[in-house]
Amino acid sequence: MPKPWLPLWVAGVAASFALPAVPSWTVLAAVWLCLLVLAWRFRAAAWLLLCLSGALYGIWRTQSALDKQWPLFQTASVPLTIEVTDLPQRDDKRVRFTAKAADGGGRHYRLQLSDYQLRDWPAGSRWRVQARVRPPVGEVNRIGFNREAWALAGGIGGVGTLGKERQALAGGGPPLLLRWREHISRRWQNTDTHGRDFSDGLGLMRALSIGEQSALSGQAWQSFRPLGLHHLVSISGLHVSMVAVLAGWLVKHGLRVLPFVPKTPRLWMLAAGLSAAVFYAGLAGFSVPTQRSVLMLLALAWAWWRGSGASVWAGWWQALALVLLFDPAAVLGAGFWLSFGLVGALLWVSAGRLNERGLRVAVRAQWAVTVVSVVALGSLFASLPLLSPLVNVAAIPWFSWVLVPLALAASLLPFAPLQWLAAAAGEYTLRLVQWVAQSAPEYAVAAAPPLLLPLAAVAALIVLLPRGSGWKPLAWLVLAGFVFYRPNVPQQGRLNVTVWDTGQGLSVWMQTRNHNLLFDTGTETAAAAQILPNLNAAGVRRLDTLVLSHHDADHDGGFAALAQAGRPREILAGQPQFYPQAAFCEEKQWQWDGVYFELLRPSENETAQDNDRSCVLRAVAGGQALLITGDLGRRGELALVEKYGAGLYSQVLVLGHHGSDSSSAGAFLNAVSPQYAVASSGFANAYRHPAAAVQNRVKAHGAALLRTDLSGALVFELGGGEDVFRGRLKTSKPYWQKKPFE
Prior knowledge:
With 742 residues, the protein is an alpha/beta fold. The relative contact order is 0.08.
């Protein structure tokens, strides 16, 4: 084991990102000096000093990164001078790329920009553009993709949308490596597949060779989730390590045929492996995960060079410390914990078994990865792909030893038959993956109480102990509690309502004692990154009813993902022709566990636009009501008032069309008379929802305006007390996160 100072420093860096607030630097410096004095006499003070030193380093680096982000509420369109710094990512809707940017005041930022006009943005090119930029603030729910953490970990200072006008600037040009990557990408795109559709296979080769993950279709990405295969498509620790091992193995066997044996063959193997790792990381654009992988390999290679068995763990800690020294914000990425956690599990399970070889080692390694993955995937993603261990047994060697070397060889050698072979291998691999994924089961893991998660992590280590332990039965019980834990459900006659934060979209979850209803899914991205993980974290295994208000991407974009994972027993829709097995949301009423639901319909208008075909749902529990109207416009609202009048009265109103001025007419607000009006909209959205006029009307009617763009997901309880509002779903936040705003 390493000396205590290294783990203590690492723990301090990691813990700094969990702090809710940071004292002034004067206070921190005074505490540090006091501990320094006490450390000469007390070991405990020395340990605290090491932890505090790590925390101070993490805070300093994080504050420096925050200072380089776009100003918080400056979201107007501004002129920028930009330089494209990576390969653009293109899909059906937009071209997205990272760029160095300078504004009119001479301030410099690293931005992620999107162009919805699908123009070409060659790597290294320089432009003068008009862009609407905002800070990297995203959705906040219980779990799910955290845009602010992603931005810190990736060094992104803001995200923006490009305007129509642009002017090319002289100078610039991509560096040699970026130019080479762009050349490889275009060569893959122009591969002659002899009339066969190898589009997914070509995309996979681009992803595995140069890290161009946008080349893969959305359908391919969806198939990776239920099989736990995302890590095989990302160029990170696994692939970089395998390439390094392969290079070292080739040099080892190459040295055997030389007429002389070098004095230090191990050095030759290490040099070859590290050189191959650095080369592969460069080919992938030196992305943040590949940088971490190379640093980790450097530290582990140093430990291997020293050669003692005790240095294996020292190498692991050194690798961890080295990564955090270069990039403290790495702790905010799931990949960091998965990479080091799984490697640590392999080292842990191998203790005392260094002489084992062959199949037994492979089985034991897979067992260790499976046990640790239960805790890691359950806590990070609230889901366990049940077939993942079996699929990964075959997929890891196939990807690492066949597809990755094939992708690299076909990228570097201009040999058309080799590229065709690589594309075919990738295509048929993905077809098999998609076929298996169609019936692959997933298990929803509810968010564990604060104490249960660390206990589960310790229990996993106890289970993996090489020798028998009297603690193992208890450890198995703790793991079972972690996996099968379910949160409390509402009492009879009560309704819990969560308005998810889906950005510029809508999704509302309603739960009674024995039933679950989801009204809209948000966009495809929001459903995958927010809705599904949070339903899993809430312990929802299946939806009883899925209501799709109308056919608009910000309301039904996640239908395919929800239909597969949530398997709703019933689908109701305002435009059912767009969804298999969906029924029209005609006027009807039903009861679940003492809670009353009713679908309302204004007078039908066959020529109405999509928004005015929205389903309207009202739920009543204990005399308290909630009303959701989708994107229904003023004409539809007035038709509801004429038909139902005072029957629309509700304590909670989810504002129509995200708070657009096209909805929420004064007469409608009079009829509903809400206590709370909720605007489900994205932070700094281009539509400026909720509109100023709507805010004024809500205020004039005496209702409190609640906004997901500022507060994140919001929680209500009907039938449980006088006040139906229970507050934000996520009430705490670390100091570096801006949302939810005070």
